[in-house]
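Sample intake sheet
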Amino acid sequence: MDILIIGGTGLISTGIVKHLRNRKANITMFNRGKRDNRLDADVSAILGDRNDPASFAQCTAGKSWDVVIDMICFTPEQAEASVKTFAGKCGQFIFCSTVCTYGIKIPPGVVVDESFPQEPISGYGRNKVLCEKAFLAAHAHGDFKATIVRPSHTYGEGSPLIDQLEGDGCAWDRIEKGLPILCAGDGMGLWNSTHRDDCGALFAYAAMNPKTYGQSYNATIERVFTWRDYYREAAAALGKKAQLLMVPAEWVAGHDPKRFGLLKEITQWHGAYTSAKATRDVPEFAPTIDFTTGAKRVFDDLRKRGVWKNGAGDALYQQMVDKAIANGPPLIEA
Protein backbone atom coordinates (compact mmCIF):
# COMPACT_ATOMS: atom_id res chain seq x y z
CA MET A 1 0.00 0.00 0.00
CA ASP A 2 1.59 3.28 -1.15
CA ILE A 3 0.56 6.18 1.08
CA LEU A 4 1.30 9.89 0.70
CA ILE A 5 0.80 12.15 3.72
CA ILE A 6 0.62 15.85 2.97
CA GLY A 7 2.21 17.29 6.10
CA GLY A 8 3.38 14.27 8.01
CA THR A 9 5.43 15.73 10.86
CA GLY A 10 2.58 17.00 13.06
CA LEU A 11 0.95 15.54 16.13
CA ILE A 12 -1.77 13.39 14.57
CA SER A 13 0.48 12.42 11.67
CA THR A 14 2.88 10.78 14.11
CA GLY A 15 0.05 8.54 15.31
CA ILE A 16 -1.03 7.80 11.75
CA VAL A 17 2.46 6.69 10.73
CA LYS A 18 2.71 4.40 13.75
CA HIS A 19 -0.36 2.46 12.60
CA LEU A 20 0.53 2.57 8.90
CA ARG A 21 3.81 0.89 9.80
CA ASN A 22 1.82 -1.87 11.44
CA ARG A 23 0.04 -2.27 8.11
CA LYS A 24 3.42 -2.54 6.30
CA ALA A 25 2.58 0.49 4.17
CA ASN A 26 5.10 2.35 2.04
CA ILE A 27 4.91 5.88 3.47
CA THR A 28 5.95 9.16 1.87
CA MET A 29 5.35 12.64 3.25
CA PHE A 30 5.21 15.94 1.39
CA ASN A 31 6.05 19.15 3.24
CA ARG A 32 8.45 22.10 3.32
CA GLY A 33 10.86 20.44 5.73
CA LYS A 34 10.53 23.32 8.18
CA ARG A 35 9.59 21.25 11.25
CA ASP A 36 11.63 18.64 13.04
CA ASN A 37 11.01 15.21 11.53
CA ARG A 38 10.40 12.81 14.41
CA LEU A 39 9.82 9.92 12.02
CA ASP A 40 12.36 7.24 11.16
CA ALA A 41 14.34 6.86 7.98
CA ASP A 42 11.85 4.35 6.55
CA VAL A 43 9.49 7.24 5.75
CA SER A 44 10.37 8.88 2.44
CA ALA A 45 10.08 12.62 1.94
CA ILE A 46 9.26 14.96 -0.91
CA LEU A 47 10.19 18.56 -0.12
CA GLY A 48 7.90 21.25 -1.46
CA ASP A 49 5.23 23.85 -0.79
CA ARG A 50 1.61 22.88 -1.33
CA ASN A 51 0.78 26.51 -2.13
CA ASP A 52 3.16 26.46 -5.11
CA PRO A 53 1.42 24.60 -7.98
CA ALA A 54 4.70 23.56 -9.62
CA SER A 55 6.08 22.31 -6.32
CA PHE A 56 2.86 20.51 -5.45
CA ALA A 57 2.87 18.75 -8.81
CA GLN A 58 5.99 16.87 -7.68
CA CYS A 59 3.67 14.61 -5.69
CA THR A 60 2.33 12.99 -8.84
CA ALA A 61 5.30 13.33 -11.20
CA GLY A 62 5.36 9.85 -12.70
CA LYS A 63 3.64 8.53 -9.58
CA SER A 64 0.20 7.49 -8.36
CA TRP A 65 -0.88 6.64 -4.84
CA ASP A 66 -3.21 4.14 -3.28
CA VAL A 67 -4.12 6.69 -0.59
CA VAL A 68 -3.36 10.37 -0.02
CA ILE A 69 -3.92 11.75 3.51
CA ASP A 70 -4.08 15.55 3.65
CA MET A 71 -3.30 16.89 7.13
CA ILE A 72 -2.61 20.53 6.28
CA CYS A 73 -5.47 21.66 4.05
CA PHE A 74 -7.16 24.69 5.62
CA THR A 75 -8.69 26.71 2.78
CA PRO A 76 -10.97 25.96 -0.18
CA GLU A 77 -8.19 27.11 -2.49
CA GLN A 78 -5.88 24.47 -1.06
CA ALA A 79 -8.65 21.87 -1.39
CA GLU A 80 -9.19 22.77 -5.03
CA ALA A 81 -5.44 22.44 -5.64
CA SER A 82 -5.49 18.98 -4.05
CA VAL A 83 -8.38 17.88 -6.24
CA LYS A 84 -6.61 19.17 -9.34
CA THR A 85 -3.34 17.48 -8.35
CA PHE A 86 -4.68 14.08 -7.30
CA ALA A 87 -7.76 13.53 -9.49
CA GLY A 88 -7.08 10.23 -11.21
CA LYS A 89 -3.75 9.93 -9.38
CA CYS A 90 -4.91 8.26 -6.17
CA GLY A 91 -7.48 5.67 -5.22
CA GLN A 92 -8.60 7.32 -1.99
CA PHE A 93 -8.20 10.81 -0.53
CA ILE A 94 -8.53 11.17 3.27
CA PHE A 95 -9.03 14.73 4.49
CA CYS A 96 -8.31 15.85 8.05
CA SER A 97 -11.17 18.16 8.95
CA THR A 98 -12.34 19.15 12.46
CA VAL A 99 -15.31 18.94 14.82
CA CYS A 100 -15.24 22.76 14.75
CA THR A 101 -17.35 22.40 11.60
CA TYR A 102 -20.36 21.62 13.80
CA GLY A 103 -20.35 24.91 15.68
CA ILE A 104 -21.61 25.30 19.25
CA LYS A 105 -25.22 24.13 19.19
CA ILE A 106 -26.14 21.14 21.36
CA PRO A 107 -28.33 18.28 20.07
CA PRO A 108 -31.17 16.85 22.20
CA GLY A 109 -28.94 13.92 23.13
CA VAL A 110 -26.07 16.33 23.96
CA VAL A 111 -23.42 14.29 22.13
CA VAL A 112 -22.78 15.27 18.49
CA ASP A 113 -22.67 12.63 15.76
CA GLU A 114 -21.91 13.04 12.05
CA SER A 115 -25.54 13.76 11.15
CA PHE A 116 -25.56 16.99 13.16
CA PRO A 117 -25.82 20.17 11.04
CA GLN A 118 -22.55 21.94 10.32
CA GLU A 119 -22.90 25.55 11.50
CA PRO A 120 -19.37 26.66 12.43
CA ILE A 121 -18.81 29.93 14.28
CA SER A 122 -15.15 30.43 13.31
CA GLY A 123 -13.36 31.14 10.06
CA TYR A 124 -11.33 27.99 10.66
CA GLY A 125 -14.47 25.87 10.87
CA ARG A 126 -16.15 27.54 7.90
CA ASN A 127 -13.10 26.97 5.71
CA LYS A 128 -12.91 23.31 6.71
CA VAL A 129 -16.57 22.86 5.70
CA LEU A 130 -15.78 24.31 2.27
CA CYS A 131 -12.83 21.94 1.96
CA GLU A 132 -15.02 18.98 2.87
CA LYS A 133 -17.51 19.97 0.17
CA ALA A 134 -14.76 20.18 -2.43
CA PHE A 135 -13.47 16.69 -1.65
CA LEU A 136 -16.93 15.13 -1.51
CA ALA A 137 -17.77 16.79 -4.84
CA ALA A 138 -14.62 15.22 -6.30
CA HIS A 139 -15.75 11.88 -4.89
CA ALA A 140 -19.16 12.27 -6.55
CA HIS A 141 -17.42 13.19 -9.81
CA GLY A 142 -15.30 10.05 -9.68
CA ASP A 143 -11.94 11.80 -9.27
CA PHE A 144 -11.09 9.60 -6.26
CA LYS A 145 -12.78 8.02 -3.25
CA ALA A 146 -12.99 10.64 -0.48
CA THR A 147 -13.11 10.10 3.28
CA ILE A 148 -13.52 12.91 5.83
CA VAL A 149 -12.09 12.57 9.36
CA ARG A 150 -12.99 15.12 12.07
CA PRO A 151 -10.73 15.07 15.13
CA SER A 152 -11.56 17.01 18.29
CA HIS A 153 -8.94 17.83 20.92
CA THR A 154 -6.04 15.53 20.14
CA TYR A 155 -2.99 15.53 22.38
CA GLY A 156 0.25 13.60 22.69
CA GLU A 157 4.00 13.69 22.98
CA GLY A 158 5.64 16.38 20.90
CA SER A 159 3.11 19.09 21.78
CA PRO A 160 1.97 20.88 24.93
CA LEU A 161 -1.18 19.76 26.73
CA ILE A 162 -3.84 22.44 26.50
CA ASP A 163 -5.72 23.64 29.53
CA GLN A 164 -9.18 25.15 29.25
CA LEU A 165 -7.81 28.68 28.83
CA GLU A 166 -4.98 28.33 26.32
CA GLY A 167 -2.90 26.02 24.22
CA ASP A 168 0.36 26.21 26.16
CA GLY A 169 -0.38 27.66 29.56
CA CYS A 170 1.13 27.65 33.01
CA ALA A 171 -1.65 25.65 34.70
CA TRP A 172 0.32 22.42 34.93
CA ASP A 173 3.32 24.06 36.59
CA ARG A 174 1.02 25.83 39.04
CA ILE A 175 -0.74 22.57 39.91
CA GLU A 176 2.61 20.92 40.53
CA LYS A 177 3.56 23.79 42.86
CA GLY A 178 0.27 23.61 44.77
CA LEU A 179 -1.01 26.93 43.37
CA PRO A 180 -4.64 27.57 42.34
CA ILE A 181 -5.62 27.75 38.69
CA LEU A 182 -8.48 29.35 36.80
CA CYS A 183 -11.39 27.39 35.34
CA ALA A 184 -14.06 29.02 33.20
CA GLY A 185 -17.74 28.78 34.10
CA ASP A 186 -18.65 26.09 36.61
CA GLY A 187 -16.16 23.55 35.28
CA MET A 188 -18.98 21.32 34.08
CA GLY A 189 -18.53 21.96 30.36
CA LEU A 190 -18.28 18.72 28.37
CA TRP A 191 -15.16 17.70 26.48
CA ASN A 192 -13.43 14.86 24.58
CA SER A 193 -9.66 14.38 24.62
CA THR A 194 -8.08 11.72 22.41
CA HIS A 195 -4.44 10.66 22.37
CA ARG A 196 -2.75 11.07 18.99
CA ASP A 197 -2.00 7.33 18.74
CA ASP A 198 -5.69 6.49 19.14
CA CYS A 199 -6.78 9.20 16.71
CA GLY A 200 -4.17 8.15 14.16
CA ALA A 201 -5.60 4.65 14.01
CA LEU A 202 -8.78 5.90 12.32
CA PHE A 203 -6.84 7.51 9.46
CA ALA A 204 -4.52 4.53 9.07
CA TYR A 205 -7.23 1.85 9.03
CA ALA A 206 -9.70 3.88 7.00
CA ALA A 207 -7.11 3.65 4.23
CA MET A 208 -8.40 1.38 1.46
CA ASN A 209 -11.44 0.45 3.53
CA PRO A 210 -14.42 0.60 1.12
CA LYS A 211 -16.86 1.23 3.97
CA THR A 212 -15.27 4.64 4.48
CA TYR A 213 -15.59 5.86 0.89
CA GLY A 214 -17.79 8.96 0.69
CA GLN A 215 -18.21 9.02 4.47
CA SER A 216 -17.40 11.45 7.28
CA TYR A 217 -16.26 10.38 10.76
CA ASN A 218 -15.66 11.91 14.15
CA ALA A 219 -12.28 10.80 15.49
CA THR A 220 -12.68 10.99 19.27
CA ILE A 221 -12.51 8.72 22.25
CA GLU A 222 -16.02 7.79 23.34
CA ARG A 223 -15.57 9.07 26.87
CA VAL A 224 -17.06 12.51 27.52
CA PHE A 225 -15.88 14.28 30.65
CA THR A 226 -16.05 17.71 32.31
CA TRP A 227 -13.29 20.25 32.76
CA ARG A 228 -13.25 19.34 36.45
CA ASP A 229 -12.53 15.75 35.37
CA TYR A 230 -9.89 16.99 32.95
CA TYR A 231 -7.99 18.96 35.59
CA ARG A 232 -8.36 16.25 38.21
CA GLU A 233 -6.97 13.55 35.95
CA ALA A 234 -4.17 15.71 34.55
CA ALA A 235 -3.22 16.66 38.11
CA ALA A 236 -3.18 12.95 39.02
CA ALA A 237 -0.58 12.47 36.28
CA LEU A 238 1.57 14.89 38.31
CA GLY A 239 0.74 13.18 41.61
CA LYS A 240 -1.11 16.33 42.72
CA LYS A 241 -4.58 17.76 43.31
CA ALA A 242 -5.97 20.64 41.26
CA GLN A 243 -7.36 23.67 43.13
CA LEU A 244 -9.80 25.51 40.86
CA LEU A 245 -11.06 29.09 40.92
CA MET A 246 -14.28 29.34 38.91
CA VAL A 247 -14.48 32.54 36.85
CA PRO A 248 -16.58 33.70 33.87
CA ALA A 249 -15.11 32.90 30.45
CA GLU A 250 -15.78 36.45 29.27
CA TRP A 251 -13.83 37.81 32.24
CA VAL A 252 -10.82 35.66 31.38
CA ALA A 253 -10.86 36.48 27.66
CA GLY A 254 -11.26 40.17 28.42
CA HIS A 255 -7.81 40.28 29.99
CA ASP A 256 -6.11 39.25 26.75
CA PRO A 257 -8.40 38.13 23.88
CA LYS A 258 -5.49 36.91 21.78
CA ARG A 259 -3.82 34.86 24.50
CA PHE A 260 -7.10 33.30 25.60
CA GLY A 261 -8.48 32.85 22.10
CA LEU A 262 -8.83 29.09 22.61
CA LEU A 263 -11.27 29.68 25.47
CA LYS A 264 -13.11 32.43 23.64
CA GLU A 265 -13.62 30.45 20.45
CA ILE A 266 -13.75 26.80 21.52
CA THR A 267 -13.36 25.58 25.09
CA GLN A 268 -16.01 27.71 26.79
CA TRP A 269 -18.57 25.70 24.79
CA HIS A 270 -19.55 22.06 25.14
CA GLY A 271 -17.41 19.81 22.95
CA ALA A 272 -18.92 16.34 23.27
CA TYR A 273 -18.80 13.95 20.30
CA THR A 274 -19.43 10.32 19.53
CA SER A 275 -17.36 8.20 17.17
CA ALA A 276 -19.71 5.21 17.14
CA LYS A 277 -19.93 5.40 13.35
CA ALA A 278 -16.14 5.21 13.07
CA THR A 279 -15.80 2.25 15.41
CA ARG A 280 -18.55 0.48 13.46
CA ASP A 281 -16.92 0.94 10.04
CA VAL A 282 -13.27 0.84 11.18
CA PRO A 283 -13.12 -1.66 14.06
CA GLU A 284 -9.36 -1.18 14.40
CA PHE A 285 -10.17 2.31 15.68
CA ALA A 286 -10.67 1.41 19.33
CA PRO A 287 -9.22 4.14 21.58
CA THR A 288 -7.65 2.71 24.73
CA ILE A 289 -5.31 5.37 26.18
CA ASP A 290 -6.90 6.86 29.30
CA PHE A 291 -6.38 10.55 29.89
CA THR A 292 -4.22 10.33 33.01
CA THR A 293 -1.83 7.93 31.27
CA GLY A 294 -1.72 10.08 28.16
CA ALA A 295 -1.21 13.28 30.14
CA LYS A 296 1.71 11.73 32.03
CA ARG A 297 3.32 10.79 28.73
CA VAL A 298 3.00 14.39 27.55
CA PHE A 299 4.37 15.83 30.80
CA ASP A 300 7.32 13.43 30.75
CA ASP A 301 8.00 14.38 27.14
CA LEU A 302 7.90 18.12 27.91
CA ARG A 303 10.50 17.66 30.65
CA LYS A 304 12.65 15.44 28.46
CA ARG A 305 12.70 18.06 25.73
CA GLY A 306 13.33 20.87 28.21
CA VAL A 307 10.20 22.81 27.31
CA TRP A 308 8.21 22.49 30.55
CA LYS A 309 6.50 25.87 31.00
CA ASN A 310 7.40 27.52 34.30
CA GLY A 311 4.48 29.55 35.62
CA ALA A 312 6.45 31.57 38.16
CA GLY A 313 7.00 34.48 35.80
CA ASP A 314 3.46 34.66 34.43
CA ALA A 315 2.47 37.99 35.96
CA LEU A 316 -0.87 38.31 34.16
CA TYR A 317 -2.08 34.89 35.26
CA GLN A 318 -1.11 35.59 38.87
CA GLN A 319 -2.88 38.96 38.77
CA MET A 320 -6.01 37.23 37.51
CA VAL A 321 -5.81 34.64 40.27
CA ASP A 322 -5.39 37.40 42.87
CA LYS A 323 -8.42 39.24 41.50
CA ALA A 324 -10.50 36.06 41.52
CA ILE A 325 -9.55 35.28 45.12
CA ALA A 326 -10.37 38.86 46.16
CA ASN A 327 -13.84 38.50 44.62
CA GLY A 328 -14.51 35.60 46.96
CA PRO A 329 -15.27 32.41 44.98
CA PRO A 330 -14.15 29.42 47.04
CA LEU A 331 -11.42 27.12 45.83
CA ILE A 332 -12.79 23.84 44.51
CA GLU A 333 -10.72 20.69 44.48
CA ALA A 334 -11.22 19.00 41.12
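Comment: The longest helix spans residues 123-141. Residues 171-192+224-271+290-333 form one domain.
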